[in-house]
Design brief:
Helix content is 39%, strand content 20%. With 448 residues, it is α/β, with parallel strands linked by helices. It has 2 domains: 182 residues, D-Maltodextrin-Binding Protein, domain 2; 190 residues, D-Maltodextrin-Binding Protein, domain 2. The longest helix is centred in the N-terminal third of the chain and has 17 residues. It comes from Thermococcus indicus. One of its GO terms (biological process) is maltodextrin transmembrane transport. InterPro entries: Maltose/Cyclodextrin-bd, SBP, SBP_1_CS.
């Protein structure tokens, strides 16, 4: 997906590691290990715990590495992952449970995860853990809905992560989550239609112009549109939605206005006239656009479509002799510890294994295209040589870490409101006036 922010500086550090650097068994087998054999039940639900169904995995013999710590009992994890992501997570959990037969890992799908957590945690009906990007850490911690894990996070664990990930797991002096990947959006291109990926925005625009044929439902680019996706351009010229240090929105800043205007003048005309995620992705998957802007979570579907593809950062814009890189929001995927956690010890042991085992993180990277944040994996030759990980790793270099302040919650709706109003008449919209209107709306919501 899914911040007291020196993180903008840290993004570059992360990517330098990625660039200078998802299948190995997550069990991390070693010749000296002892062997255990047992069934490993894993449960997946789409509603409440009472509707849990269990599907035991086949009994298998797994070598247990000495460093694996096993708890006991059930650990419940709420999530809103895509099916392909869940499949990999379940497989890894089964590996762990084969090594730790007294533990059951239960995944519960929550399509509206935030609402479900806010309703359940205060009443003691929440999960042990939940999975989301780091940008929830501020509002959930301030609301008392996270469990600190300070007693578990030692310096050696902390220093095993890239700096951006270290920042993403803590808030106001406490640790509440463990990171396992970074993410941002990049340009995914169809190699059958684009011989060489664009190195500049002018080259990208020329490709869009070449393929744009709306009368035949073909377009220059496929691009879901909302506040998250548009952030790349809003922040390209120095603008921003929200500054985490001053805790002030910036929709009315001239640089932000310039970014919005640039998008609607230079990209929107080459898109299908819809903001819908599924529609936009389908256009690329069906070969009706040569390029798509999307994140690593989309790669599985691209592969299933049989597209020969490449991944590169959004190319820089040249203006008045200067180079401006689009700066999409970047995030860190975290596993959070929920307040009222019922099995903290077992949850910690599973999460520690999951987030600090190089074999696990490498599996996530190679299977799902996640950008790793665990240092040994960043330096793994297979990761360094993977074009998908490399491409998104390059993209992270130019990302803008999503804010951690709870006040950011008032910003998302305001930006989406501005986008929706502009979309009513993109050609004639007074973008500056609309952004100023929603800037004031955001301020009113933050103050009242």
């Amino acid at each position: 997906m899914k911040k007291g922010l020196f993180a903008l500086l840290l993004v570059g550090v992360l990517v330098l590691s990625v660039v200078a650097s998802g299948c190995i068994s997550p069990g991390g087998e070693s010749p000296s290990s002892t062997t255990t054999s047992s069934p490993s039940p894993i449960e997946t639900t789409t509603s409440s715990p009472s509707s849990t169904t269990s599907s035991p995995s086949p009994t298998e013999t797994t070598t247990t590495p000495p460093e694996t710590e096993c708890g006991s009992g059930e650990v419940v994890i709420w999530h809103a992952m895509q099916p392909n992501e869940l499949e990999v997570f379940q497989s890894l959990a089964e590996e762990y449970m084969a090594m730790c037969p007294d533990v059951t890992i239960t995944f519960e799908q929550k399509p509206d995860l935030e609402s479900a957590l806010k309703a359940a945690i205060p009443t003691g009906q929440g999960p042990d853990l939940f999975i989301w990007a780091h940008d929830w850490i501020g509002k959930f911690a301030d609301a008392g809905m996270l469990e600190p894990i300070d007693e578990y996070v030692t310096d050696d664990i902390l220093n095993g992560f890239a700096p951006m990930a270290q920042e993403a797991m803590q808030y106001k002096g406490h640790f509440y989550a463990m990171p396992f990947a970074a993410e941002t959006v990049a340009l995914i291109y169809n190699k059958d239609m684009v011989n060489e990926p664009p190195k500049t925005f002018d080259e990208m625009k020329a490709i869009m112009e070449q393929y744009n044929d709306p009368d035949n439902e073909k377009y220059g680019i496929a691009y879901p549109l909302n506040a998250y996706f548009l952030s790349a351009w809003a922040q390209a010229f120095g603008g921003y939605y929200f500054d985490d240090q001053s805790e002030m929105p910036g929709l009315d800043q001239p640089e932000t206005v310039e970014g919005f205007e640039f998008f609607f003048q230079n990209i929107w005309p080459y898109m299908a006239p819809t903001a819908d995620y599924g529609t936009q992705q389908s256009i690329f998957l069906e070969g009706r656009a040569p390029m798509m802007i999307n994140g690593p979570w989309s790669i599985s579907d691209v592969k299933k479509a049989g597209i020969d593809f490449g991944v590169v950062p959004l190319p820089p814009i040249t203006k008045d002799g200067k180079e401006y890189w689009p700066r999409p929001y970047g995030g860190v995927k975290d596993i959070y510890f929920a307040a009222g956690i019922k099995n903290k010890e077992a949850a910690w042991k599973f999460v520690k294994w999951f987030t600090t085992s190089p074999e696990v993180i490498k599996e996530l990277s190679l299977q799902l295209g996640y950008i790793p944040v665990l240092t040994p994996v960043l330096n793994d030759p297979d990761i360094q040589n993977d074009p998908v990980i490399y491409g998104f790793g390059q993209a992270v270099q130019h990302a803008y870490l999503m804010p951690k302040s709870p006040k950011m919650g008032a910003v998302w709706g305001g930006v989406d409101g501005a986008i929706n109003e502009i979309l009513q008449d993109p050609e004639n919209a007074d973008i500056k006036a609309i952004l100023e209107k929603y800037q004031q709306q955001i301020l009113d919501n933050m103050n009242g």
